[in-house]
Write a structure and sequence with these properties.
137 residues, mainly alpha, elongated
Length: 137
């Protein structure tokens, strides 16, 4: 049960982190991709605390959650961009554009900096899960 709760918590942290990342990017008007590193560290820490330390399953879940955070934030940023271009509310734009158009806009905005940041975030989350657990006294 602890592991199921750990996976759910890590996934919810990734989704919430992706939403916060989107808000920060819109508020600061710049690509705050460094926040993904914070999300990756949080996901790795959550999975370690829920019994996934030094396991291949934990690494896979950590990397998957980091990718989910990135994809979710990219989807929200693409919808916000389309909404601002069309002058529509974000809520109606999220439902109207669909995943195909959102992914096309997100791919058009994808830079080498974001790719490097995404790879580094995946490495950080995997390393935080993989490193050996400290012996308890």
């Amino acid at each position: 049960m602890t592991r199921v709760l750990g996976v759910a918590t890590a996934l919810m942290c990734a989704l919430a982190g992706g939403a916060v990342w989107c808000v920060l990017a819109l508020y600061l008007r710049l690509d705050s991709g460094v926040f993904l590193l914070v999300i990756a560290a949080l996901v790795g820490w959550v999975l370690r605390r829920h019994g996934f330390a030094h396991s291949w399953a934990g690494i896979a879940i950590a990397v998957a959650c980091t990718l989910v955070a990135f994809a979710y934030s990219s989807y929200l940023l693409a919808a916000a961009k389309v909404a601002s271009f069309l002058g529509l509310p974000l809520r109606s734009t999220l439902l109207a554009i669909g995943p195909e158009m959102a992914s096309a806009v997100a791919r058009a905005d994808f830079t080498a900096w974001q790719a490097a940041n995404l790879v580094l975030a995946c490495i950080i989350s995997a390393w935080l899960v993989w490193r050996p657990a400290r012996p308890r006294n």
